[in-house]
Amino acid sequence: MKINEFKEMSSDELIVRRTELKEETFNLKVQKESGQLDNPARIRTVRRAVARIETILSDRGKSVAASA
To answer: What domains are defined for the chain?
Structure first.
């Protein structure tokens, strides 16, 4: 997903999506260790998506704290 797609989501949706992606990262790592991983680049893609979500959540938290 692109960053604009993440920005359109609510914070609750982002938290749920981050949890799903972290679970997927774990599953991909298990597949890699067992030699069943077909697309190793998927790990990188998922990690970056998690980082994008965490960045957006962090920015939203800073903007809320600044306005308070």
So the answer is: 3-63 (1.10.287.310)
